[in-house]
Structure formats: C-alpha cells, structure tokens
Amino acid sequence: MSLREKIIQEIRASGPIPFSRYMEMCLYDPQHGYYSRKVEQFGRAGDFYTSSDVHAVFGRLLARQFEEMWRILGSPERIEILELGPGRGLFARDVLDWSEKKFPEFFGALHYSLWEQSAGLQAQLQVTLERHFVAGNASFPQGLKLPLPDELHSAAEAVHARACATDAAAASSVPVIVFANEFFDALPVEVLSPWGELRIAEKDGRFVETWVPATTDSLAYLGGYSVHAEDGERVETACIAQSYMTQLAASIQQGFLIAIDYGYTRAEQLAGRHRGTIMAYRKHSVSANPYEAPGEQDITTHVNFTALAAAAEQQGMEVEPLLTQSQFLMGIGERNQFADAFDDCRLPQERAKVALQLKHLVTPAGMGESFHVLVASKGIAAEQVARLSGLAFVSRNKR
Ligand SMILES: C[S@@+](CC[C@H](N)C(=O)[O-])C[C@H]1O[C@@H](n2cnc3c(N)ncnc32)[C@H](O)[C@@H]1O
Q1: What is the mean pLDDT of residues 110-132?
Q2: How far away, in angstroms, is 187 Cα from ligand 1 center?
Q3: Residue 375: pLDDT band by 50, 70, 90 thresholds?
C-alpha cells in the first residue's frame, strides 16, 4: 500500500485529519515517510542542502563556540552535547573531529548524544560516526523521553500531557549544550485561515481541504505568539515545536541551547510577512503544494522564533536577542580570520573554493540572513554569557 493509500484509508476510517497528522505521516511514517524511507535526501544529489553540506567550517566554528561555552561553565570534567535531528551526522562529525584536533581538553570532557527518530538515519549515523561510537564519545541518548513523532498525531494536548516526562541527558547534573540545526522547521504544524483550522478530507482518491473551528491550543498560540490570518491568508501554529522546547528547556539544569533555522518573529508577521510558510522540496525545486507525491518530498515551515523563545523563557532560560546566522558566524570566525575554514587548503585554488563556500554560509545572498540563531542559557551569569564570541559581532556593532 502506498503512503497516499494509507493516508486515505485513515481518513476513511476516522474522518478528516489535521494538517499536522498529514505532515507527520508524509515525513515520519515508519515505512513510507520522507525521513524514514531514504537517507539520500541531503546534499547535491538529494532534495536540499543544509549548512553542514556546504562545508565542514560550519561544524568547526560551532565546535569553537561549544568549547568556549565549556570554558565559561568552568571547564567541567564532563559536558554533554545533545543534538536534535542530526540527520546523517555531518555536523556531529565535524564538531567531534575538530574538537579532537584543536581542543583536546574540551574533547576529553565531551560526550555527544544524537536524538534522531529515523531508523534509517540512525543506521547512517553509526556509519558516519563509527570511530566516535566505538570510542564511547557519541551515542543515542538513553532514557530521554521526548515524544516520538508517531505518538504526536495532531494532539498537542497529548504532548502537553507528557510535557514533564523529559529526563536523562538534559536533566542530569552534567552541563548540557542542546543544539538544533533545521530541526524545528521539520516538526508538524497546524494551518489556520479565517475559515478556521485545516483538516484534510478525501474525495475520489484525492486530498481535499476542509475547515473546522480552531482548537483552543491553536487560538492560544495565535493570541500569544502569532497573528490571525486575514482574508486570503494562512498562518501556521507550531504547538508541537513549542512542546519540544518546553520539555527541553525544563530539563536543562545548567547549560546552553542553540537553535538555527529559517524563520521569523511575531513583529515580522505583524508587518505582514511570513504568513503561510509551508514549502515542499524535491530535487532542489520548491513547491507550495504539500499534497503532491506524499512521502517523496520534504515539507517544511518557517520557525516562529517568538514562540520558541517564550517557551524557553517560561522554563527559566535567558534568551539572547535573535541573531542572523551571518552575525553569529562572523562573531565566532573573525577573531582568527576564519582560519578554521582554510586549515586543510594547500593550493590557492582550494582556498578560493573554500572562500566561496564560506561566503555562502555567511553572506546575505547565501544562508547568512535567511537563517537565524536563537541562543539561550540557564544557570550561568549574564556577564559570562555575554563573553561568547557568537554574540560579539552584534554587541560590538551596537556600541
Ligand atoms: C531537515 S533535517 C536536518 C538534519 C540536520 N540537522 C542538518 O542540518 O543537516 C531534520 C532532521 O530532524 C529529524 N527529526 C524530525 N523530527 C524529529 C523528532 N521528533 N525527533 C528526532 N529527530 C527528528 C529528521 O529525521 C531529520 O534528520
């Protein structure tokens, strides 16, 4: 049975389904879901690029930032990095390899946990990071109780009910750095319009959109962090992303959180932008139609950073003003003129190629302005946090 048939069967059995359920099945159905089915989604031959596909310098700069965080925390004997949605593990590999080479003391204290729900990608992670798995430097988290995608369904209520279940990696007395690159944009959302909340029905084997009155969760989300859609518009509510952030932030006793993604703030929505941000990606082409080829295309949304920041703050985290990826990477890299990027270049042509890749990560024309960085901390003095080089570019240019 194809995924389309499976979704239609569910609609016939239990009635129109929320968009979040549709998105969840398309991306995470254990058999046919986009992220379960294949591991070649990423990179040149796949459907999209992420920063780690561009060049190892992304992971290397972040390794530099993580090492600084560890020193700010007083160079503890042990530190945990928990990466959410690590995909194929290129970022983790770049961080671990660079830390081992350049920051041996930090590397000696580091354990790297990989929170990846796709069984196919978990297998790939064990290959990419084999050396680090064998040495015990990397593993899948033990006992971390975040809700699994197939438990989420549309029911943000069900997620809320489990909201306090998180423990293990993040909640231990070991300081933790939670890192997420393009994780929150891959979590299922609801879609709202002036007609209400979207449900997916079926007619003659085709998906049809219908609308029901918005749930209280969605209305509370719109009222708190977003805007109500006007005629002809749609907006998304990301209650599942919100629950993840709540659980993570609650479980951190001392440490940092960095979330990088393309996204927006409520202020930008109030100015009329970022309304209806659902996008589907296939072979590097973008479509606004999520109903085409279920399971074969990636479906993403822009991230509501106002909502994520609020969830972190409600759990006692200090959230820094939102940065662009450009500002963040400039802050980390400019002190040594991005030496991390050019370390293995021997020939001028190699340097020229790497310079272009770096430019793509940092400049507004590439990923530098469309991607934003949320930095939050807990249990660390504000003046210590302010020393992070990732925050330096903005603070210096404000003076
Ligand atoms: C867009 S990819 C980003 C991959 C990687 N961070 C990168 O930058 O290349 C999103 C990743 O999040 C994973 N993911 C999505 N929902 C998840 C969940 N609830 N728990 C764990 N991993 C999840 C997907 O399987 C996928 O690997």
Answers
A1: 94
A2: 9
A3: very high
What are the pocket residues of ligand 1 if the criterion is a CB atom closer than 6 Å to any ligand atom? Answer: 35, 42, 50, 52, 85-87, 91, 115-118, 121, 149, 181-183, 186-187
Residue nearest to atom 23 of ligand 1 (CA): 85
Nearest Cα to Cα of residue 367 among 325, 320, 323 = 325
Q: What is the pLDDT of residues 163-180, one digit of tens each?
A: 333 344 445 689 999 999
Cα distance between residue 391 and residue 225, in whole Å: 25
Range list of β-strands (E), 223-332: 235-237, 255-264, 279-282, 285-287, 298-300, 303-304, 318-319, 323-324
Which residue segments constitute the domains of the chain, with CATH numbers given? 31-187+238-263+303-398 (3.40.50.12710)
- N- to C-terminal Cα distance for the chain? 61
pLDDT tens-digit readout, 47-61:
667 888 888 999 999
- Which of 53, 94, 183, 367 to mutate for ligand 1's pocket (most ligand atoms within 8 Å of CB)? 183
Residue recorded with tokens 């993040």: 170
What global pTM score does this model have? 0.92
Name the packing angle between helices 216-225 and 239-251 (round to 10°). 70
Query: Mean pLDDT: which of 116-125, 277-286, 317-326 is highest?
Result: 317-326
Q: How far is the CA of 59 from the centre of ligand 1 (A)?
A: 16
Locus of tokens 């507004």:
364
Q: Decide the pairing of beta strands 298-300 and 279-282.
A: antiparallel
Sign of CA dihedral 89, 91, 93, 95: negative
Residue 147 pLDDT greater than 90, yes or no: no
Separation of alpha carbons 55 and 43, rounded Å: 11
